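Re-running the complex after MR caught last week's input typo. The corrected sequence lines follow. Everything else is unchanged.
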Amino acid sequence: MDQVDYKILSLLHENSRIPMAELGRIIGMTQPAVKERVRKLEEQGVITGYHAAISLPKLGKNTTAFVMFRTKKCAAFIEFCRQSPEVTDMYRISGEYNYMLKIVTETTEELVAFSERCGEFGYSYTLIMLTAPFEHKMTIEPPIAETAEPWSN
Amino acid sequence: MDQVDYKILSLLHENSRIPMAELGRIIGMTQPAVKERVRKLEEQGVITGYHAAISLPKLGKNTTAFVMFRTKKCAAFIEFCRQSPEVTDMYRISGEYNYMLKIVTETTEELVAFSERCGEFGYSYTLIMLTAPFEHKMTIEPPIAETAEPWSN
DNA sequence: GTTGAAAAAACAGAGGA
DNA sequence: TCCTCTGTTTTTTCAAC
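Corrected-run output:
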């Protein structure tokens, strides 16, 4: 993993459908060389997939909420959430509430309905998302830049 | 937006680097027809981008946390977060705490450092993410399936 | 939406620093 | 080991229908 790999990751994170040849043009390499690096990054599990981002409002999904949940039936609750299409993200967290869920629905009615279906697993509170100033903002750069060695300070 | 469009969205969400021709093979259409549908979905803003998913642990980012924040300096705080590489997601939420941040760092020390830099904007509490059973699980399907009309119940 | 030809990109192998 | 070069295959693009 050198500077070039980080640059590739950054560019693919920005646009995963960019042709390998153009990637090569940007970083100053031929297409097969870039492709080989990408192949290795995939093999090593650094790149885990390529996904299209889809506008939720355009799909009629106008309600996003976060549910903080306290349960003792962890395995069953995880399975329940996995099979609920409303739940897009599930995190185990520290604190009294041991799970946080991100819920995406068309209306607030659906959110309430989901919340009620959760009742049997424990207790919770819900935070409605009002706006998202930004999401998935990843800054991909080498841990220690070669242009700023520690001993140069 | 018909059934075919939803199928295209679903497949591109799964793998955004799939060739248009293979997409066509799956849904029973020629490559130019699929491409034209994808172009329209992009134009309409239904597809907002194509992104490579990158393993955070492989980049040495081993700490993820959620910070619930209360501030009165909203504009300044948004700008501060936007420019902080640790902050990957920022949500305005209902409740006493008006923002929730997702923070990704290499170590917990960096998380603490970030938290202290936030001090001037308001008060907060932090939840450490322990595990993520799943993330970005989007179920893309038409609002009303043609095979299950309301009047058939 | 389909067909078909031209352009571009991806792929696979040989060879060089 | 990592890259370039080159020929072949696949995909994309862009007409006309």
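None of the earlier attempt is carried over here. Residues 29-30, 32-33, 36 of chain B lie near DNA strand C (CB under 10 Å from a C1'). Confidence is low (pLDDT under 50) at residues 146-153 of chain B.
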